[in-house]
């Protein structure tokens, strides 16, 4: 018996890794995802098979998954498959379900008010068991079994010390949607001797991780991506974290005990495909796990306020129980 854990790298993989700790084990475990700094770091001590990415609405990419799904099913004797999406789930779960594998699709925590396109398509296949991470739209077809954010709770944070105030600004890993608006707004606030530095009487040092956003003409040194281990260390040491409101980036900050400022992207500005980040921001605000602000409305007071709270892991989050 083997359980296949299947997800696109990024927020989908982070969620699956989090939820896998709350799912009852069954046989061996095989992870399938795309290879990058994040996935190779998360799966460094797990058995993993790396495959090509499946882009949004990539029908050919979905079909290319089927031969690999068949080969892995035969070689590993897969009896259970669990996925948090996205498009890669369409290439594996329907085929495996047809082969008698117990298939489970957990919709991303990003989807606060309803399923994604992937979820809607998989919902047409009765053999696949479906899960929402929110009670608000769970029902007969979509079961509620828990939420990744059940593992975290806010707490007070003691003031940090030192000559420097460390800030991390992260735009996630998406390369197709620039988010220059956030960067341009933050630059004057985060200069080494700027308004934030004067307010706290400490020099500001900022790590800029900008993915596919073009910033070469701006007065900052930025990195498109950062190895996962190095990024985790930077988040853990940061006094302030400012991020786009993506699930993966939010979970990354929470894992390191940081109470992030989240800036939702706007679809009307071409920063994202839809406005699900606003919905996620509202949910994390409700749980007290993040401070949410519009990208061009973040103030020095917001930056300082974020340092007064921290995030801790619940010692025993509830199990995520799959349907039999």
From TrEMBL:
Keyword check for Membrane: no
Pfam families assigned: Glyco_tran_28_C
Domain Glycosyl transferase family 28 C-terminal: 232-309
Keywords: Transferase
Coiled coil ranges: none
Signal peptide residues on this chain, from the entry's feature table: none
GO molecular function: hexosyltransferase activity
Name under which the protein is recorded: Glycosyltransferase family 28
The species this protein was found in: Pseudonocardia bannensis
């Amino acid at each position: 018996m083997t359980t296949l854990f299947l997800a696109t790298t990024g927020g989908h993989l982070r969620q699956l890794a989090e939820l896998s700790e709350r799912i009852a084990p069954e046989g061996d475990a095989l992870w399938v995802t795309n290879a990058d700094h994040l996935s190779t770091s998360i799966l460094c001590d797990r058995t993993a098979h790396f495959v090509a990415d499946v882009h949004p609405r990539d029908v050919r990419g979905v079909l290319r998954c089927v031969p690999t799904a068949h080969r892995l099913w035969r070689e590993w004797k897969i009896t259970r498959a669990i996925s948090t999406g996205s498009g890669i789930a369409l290439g594996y779960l329907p085929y495996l379900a047809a082969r008698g594998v117990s298939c489970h699709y957990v919709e991303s925590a990003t989807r606060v008010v309803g399923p994604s396109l992937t979820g809607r398509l998989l919902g047409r296949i009765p053999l696949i068991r479906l899960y929402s991470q929110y009670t608000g739209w769970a029902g007969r077809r979509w079961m509620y079994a828990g939420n990744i954010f059940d593992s975290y709770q806010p707490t007070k944070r003691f003031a940090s010390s030192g000559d420097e105030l460390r800030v991390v600004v992260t735009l996630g890993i998406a390369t197709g949607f620039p988010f220059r608006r956030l960067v341009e707004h933050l630059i004057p606030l985060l200069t080494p001797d700027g308004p934030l530095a004067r307010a706290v009487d400490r020099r500001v040092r900022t790590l800029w991780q900008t993915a596919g956003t073009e910033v070469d003409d701006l007065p900052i040194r930025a990195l498109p991506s950062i190895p996962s281990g190095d990024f985790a260390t930077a988040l853990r040491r940061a006094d302030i974290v400012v991020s786009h409101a993506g699930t993966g980036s939010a979970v990354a900050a929470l894992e390191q005990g940081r109470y992030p400022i989240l800036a939702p992207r706007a679809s009307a500005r071409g920063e994202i495909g839809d406005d699900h980040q606003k919905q996620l921001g509202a949910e994390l605000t409700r749980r007290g796990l993040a401070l949410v602000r519009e990208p061009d409305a973040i103030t020095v007071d917001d930056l300082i306020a974020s340092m007064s709270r921290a995030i801790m892991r619940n010692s025993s989050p509830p199990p995520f129980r799959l349907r039999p």
